[in-house]
Design a protein that fits this description.
The structure holds two protein chains of two kinds.
Chain A lengths: L3 E10 L2 E11 L4 E5 L6 H9 L6 E6 L2 E2 L8 E4 L11 H13 L8 H18 L14 H13 L5 E5 L7 H18 L2 E5 L3 H7 L2 E7 L12 E8 L4 H9 L1
Parallel strand pairs in A: 3-8, 3-9, 6-7, 7-8
Antiparallel strand pairs in A: 1-2, 1-4, 4-5, 9-10
Helix pairs in contact in A: 2-3, 2-4, 3-4
Chain B lengths: L9 H29 L9 H13 L9 H33 L1 H14 L8 H8 L3 H26 L2 H9 L4 H38 L5 H8 L5 H29 L8
Helix pairs in contact in B: 2-10, 3-4, 3-6, 3-8, 3-9, 4-6, 5-6, 6-8, 8-9, 8-10, 9-10
Chain lengths: 250, 270
Amino acid sequence: MSLIAIKNVWKSYDEKTVLENLNFTIERNEFVTIVGASGCGKTTFLRMILGEEGPSRGNIEIDGEKLIAEPGKDRGVVFQRYSVFPHLTVLQNVLLGLEFASAKILCHSTGSTRKQQIQRCEEMLDRVGLLSSADEYPDALSGGMQQRLALSQALVVEPKILLLDEPFGALDPGIRSDMQALVKELHRELGLTVLMVTHDISEGFSLGTRVLVFDKTRMDPHEPDLFGSNITYDILVGSGQKEQQLAMNM
Amino acid sequence: MRIINLQPTRGANYFIAIVPFVLLLFIYIVFSDARLAENPDDKLLPSMTSISAAIDRMAFEPSRRTGDVLLWSDTAASLQRLAIGMTISAFLGLVVGVCNGLVPWFSAFWSPFVRVISMIPPLAVLPILFIVFGLGELSKYVLIILGTAPFIMRDMEQRVRELPKEQLIKAQTLDASTWQIVVRVVLPQVTPRLLDAVRLSLGAAWLFLIAAEAIASTEGLGYRIFLVRRYLAMDVIIPYVIWITFLAYLMDLALRRINVLLFPWFGTKR
């Protein structure tokens, strides 16, 4: 069974149709990048997977279970900004997800549980190169370091799917390539399933194992909002031929 | 160089800050001397010596009638009313504000109501409070609460709504329950803002306190000022006003300091 199944999904706001009739599946361990012009509905699609909003029609299934319109622990997320909690130190930020799982009423873990949790967090921070900043507040970190923190915070609770919404959009080019390398490594080492939205096509191809291009297939010049986007290209990276075809078309 | 780019040095800053106070004192003394030279019994601008005599009488000698040192018993009474009223206000403001900001159903029920209640001029309902709650302490607490709690509630609601949506979603992807979101994400981030809201409402709280004390009370800073007004006792009123100002300033300073000490991450957000 596929990890994610998108079945006849439509999304519209009032008169404006954003996405129409999406039908596809995503398998475990795929790194899917979603590219397209701004306003093509790629972020809307990610928000539906996240559960921030539901589809207008159709179903999204994860492991065969219908998704309700609410974020949950099987889908971790890193946004472009505001992904970490400014009132918690780096270590506390990563610890938070583990504490949510173990301390339902008190909301703070204690004793030996906490010790084990801290150890797990420190391993995670070490992995993304933030261990030396464990006691800093996020505001003292650079943009790249904040995104590393957001990644480790999302990954420490071991979600089935990692959702990335333009995670490197606000970063300087040098730092961005470091981060891309890190995400690629984490995907390979941890066997993650990743969905990433980006407007940078080359980033989409260099990171993804599969690239989805969102665009409108029909266009009514008198009523541009009438039709929504669909997947115009679904490319397995490394298969060669289709990539050239796409490059020529763009 | 443009005037917007000229910065006073640190030392100059302190010196300049003191100048208006010294100037005010100087002007007072000049006018007071002029009036007293014309009429030694003038009560409007008492001399420094009669003011310090009044301070001596109010702050260091027990009153012949009650045996209390009046300034201190007045201060204690007023601060107690202020503290109880503001504590209840802050608590109500936090609870209602957080619920309004976070829970759509709660907000649909309460937000419009709070908005309307906050428009009631508290002093206009003071007679009602005296009739309903009597002339004792309770009506004074209620006036302070009615005057400040709706503002704090609305401010807290606004602060909760200002939290980036991404944070609430992130917390949910970490499997936080509503309770866990409140305790670990919302409360820690709005508490420094609560202290700010309390700090900003203290001015209003003092106003309502003094108004309530002026009308019905037997002790308190506001009561004393309005009592001695009958005898044109400016030598008592002026030190009392300065004392109230000083207390208000200290509270403001203390709340700021507490914020900096307890919430080190907050300073960089402003």
